[in-house]
Amino acid sequence: MYYEYFGLKESPFSIAPDPRYLYMSEQHREALAHLVYGFSSDGGFVLLTGEVGTGKTTVCRCLLDQVPENSAIAFILNPKLTVEELLATVCDEFGIMYQENSSIKIFIDLINNFLFESHAQGRKTVLIIDEAQNLSPDVLEQLRLLTNLETSHQKLLQIILLGQPELRDKLAQPELRQLSQRIIARYHLGSLSRQEIGAYLSHRLAVAGSREQLFSEGTINHLYKLTGGVPRLINVICDRSLLGTYTRGEKQVSKSIMKSAALEIFGQPGNDEYQRKKSAYTWVLPLIIVCAVGVVLASTYYKKTPLQKTTLSDDSVLNSDEVYMYKPAAVKDLLPDDSMQDEVLKWPGDQPVEQSETLAFQSLFRQWDAEYRAEQKGHPCDHALTLGLHCSYRSGNLRSIMYLNRPAVLRLYDKQGQMFFGTLTGLINDRAYITIGTDDLVVPVKSIEDLWFGDYLLLWKAPPHYKSSIFPGNKNPAVPWLAQQLAIIEGRSAPPDTGMTYTQALVNRVKNFQRSEGLKPDGVVGMQTFLRINSITGTSFPSLVPKNGEGS
């Protein structure tokens, strides 16, 4: 969304595993060398482990760009499967036909026949499993048995396992020692060093079309402190930092902009400090959740439908006033007919994919009864401001979008790596309503999760005279509106004119409201506090969950 401003042709910090953007640090070169060696060997297992976001999948994609064209490759992304499901998935990936309700023996016979045929045709057969730390011991043992098929010179199936460090611990268990002994190449991928981060940023910017130095040495030093050199965290922070730099009209990312970006993403000043606090207070979390639930149940500020509350997972983005996600306790009356056929989530072949972003924004504006035209100059967010709407570019998961309860533009990637945009307009239980191009689809939630890496943009309507978040003790023209809305929620009479000062008495009332809504009770009135107030006071807005059983 800032590409033209910085002279970029595409996003330089996407977290999609695009081999073009792989920066070959010493460790990444070594990891790729191990994969190439394992691929070229006579069979067995190859193991590549590393912390979350260090680039394991991207290195593997780089390997796939180098394999012979006649190779048979199967790539399994979701390994949380039973033995039967795994074998069926292997058959699906290799294009092996089978009947429903086939037994394990039938699956194995079909796979063995396929391996013999591939070998006779001179094809290399490779099975790659990502997130392999999620494989159960039974499934791992079945994988070992699949590699038993061999000629006098080589095994007919090569298996590459990609996983987090706990995969090494799992394979070290005595019951899996036979599999561990068949690993012919293994490597653990670590984070980037401080010296490598500058080259990493320059490489990705160059691939995206920029020759400018957008990050100073001081900013890079701070980036290393925030991320510890983990590429995925670097990408997320840099993407958000460039967006912040663009919105401020500056040409180089400053340390203050990066700090703000990190605060939005991590919910605290720095990654190291966050991990320390998280470790120190892990035992307190269950107590906090129980107390928060009790506060909500005891709240008597207003009447509303009972809500179920769950904590957001660690891989979600926790912003300064977001801790919990709400979901309706009963939505059976809102669900589509069970006989409805779910549609396939993909870009329609009869529409040019280059128009996907424009079409997605047009759909988003329609949700707000507004219009956006492709020929309009400037970014869609500039047009939104003329309509009294604000853009919020965020990263999280579908639960965090459900909490905000507003339509959003998602950036999606199909299995071939083709990027396209869609507009999420409804989330009800396990189904999602999404507009792709000009097509309105109803798809399983999982189909979105398979193609989406978590970034999204939504529109929201701010109160009159809104300029920025309201902080305790500050003067803000939106304070009178805030006092009036709280009076409505609390059932009080309209307050007298309190002026623009955000007083401690009003701060305490906001904190009570935030507690009752499962928000962080810091007294800061940011976007999510505004959205919760609007939702309760009846302010008109398009939502993801239909109200009173009406259409989404």
Description:
The structure is a single chain. Residues 269-340 and 548-552 have low confidence and may be disordered. A hairpin with a 2-residue loop joins strand 11 and strand 12 (439-444). The chain starts with a helix and ends in a 15-residue tail after the last helix. The chain has helices spanning 3-6, 26-40, 56-64, 83-94, 104-120, 137-146, 166-171, 177-180, 194-207, 217-227, 231-247, 255-266, 271-280, 285-298, 356-367, 380-386, 398-404, 445-451, 479-490, 504-516, 527-537; strands at 44-50, 72-76, 125-129, 158-163, 183-189, 307-311, 324-328, 389-395, 408-413, 419-428, 431-436, 439-444, 452-461. The chain has 552 residues and is of the alpha/beta class. 41% of the residues lie in helices and 15% in strands. It is elongated. It has a 6-stranded antiparallel sheet with strand order 8-13-9-10-11-12, with helices on both faces. A 5-stranded parallel sheet has the order 2-3-4-1-5, with helices on both faces. Helix 19 (479-490) crosses helix 21. Among the domains are: 3-17 and 192-277, Helicase, Ruva Protein, domain 3; 24-189, P-loop containing nucleotide triphosphate hydrolases (Rossmann fold, 3-Layer(aba) Sandwich).
